[in-house]
Amino acid sequence: xxxxxxxxxxxxxxxxxxxxxxxxxxxxxxxxxxxxxxxxxxxxxxxxxxxxxxxxxxxxxxxxxxxxxxxxxxxxxxxxxxxxxxxxxxxxxxxxxxxxxxxxxxxxxxxxxxxxxxxxxxxxxxxxxxxxxxxxxxxxxxxxxxxxxxxxxxxxxxxxxxxxxxxxxxxxxxxxxxxxxxxxxxxxxxxxxxxxxxxxxxxxxxxxxxxxx
Length: 213
Ligand code: GRF
Known about the structure:
- By secondary structure, this protein is α/β, with parallel strands linked by helices.
- The chain has helices spanning 15-24, 44-51, 68-81, 98-103, 124-131, 166-189, and strands at 4-10, 31-38, 56-58, 86-89, 108-112, 135-142, 152-159, 193-196, 199-202.
- The chain is built from six helices and nine strands, in the order βαβαβαβαβαββαββ.
- Strands 3-2-1-4-5-6-7 form a seven-stranded mixed sheet, sandwiched between helices. It has a two-stranded antiparallel ribbon with strand order 8-9.
- Helix 1 runs parallel beside helix 6 (166-189).
- 5-O-phosphono-beta-D-ribofuranosylamine binds next to helix 1 and strand 5.
């Protein structure tokens, strides 16, 4: 079966991007990364993608001022040029309009460094420590117009240790991100995810949303 054509959208270092690229090196993986696009020309992840021989594109949001739709039209045309079928947001720091999100409904994933619906937004590790939670983690979810919402595809949890700092906790969560994002994209590319209202179901009994620990 043809592999699904995936674009990864980044704004920064691109460690999740790298995890996806590495997973997709396996010819048996059901998706191939055909494009890495960034809204920031200086995103370090772009160099990494280039060194992997992956096509890159820069669509700088600053060139469009406050006109989000114009920025997204430019992005959309790059996606079409590369015949992209699925999108993975990986540290992409732009809010997308309802129009763009609707166009990519059920075909666009995001990864968030918390166990949604807890800790939407920024500084999740600091906030988890401030709340004294004993478990923290990461979530891959479908993108919907609301930020850090949308049907949950995969989650991975880590324990919070007494001496954790945002950095140590963040590093533990990041390792989980790098594991669950490729797993989630695999399920999507295989057509095994089914969104029913707010819920995402995985169509194989052995597939679980939470990793075995
Ligand atoms: C990750 O923590 C991800 O969960 C969040 O942004 C960060 C991106 O990191 N959405 P990287 O660029 O993938 O290293």
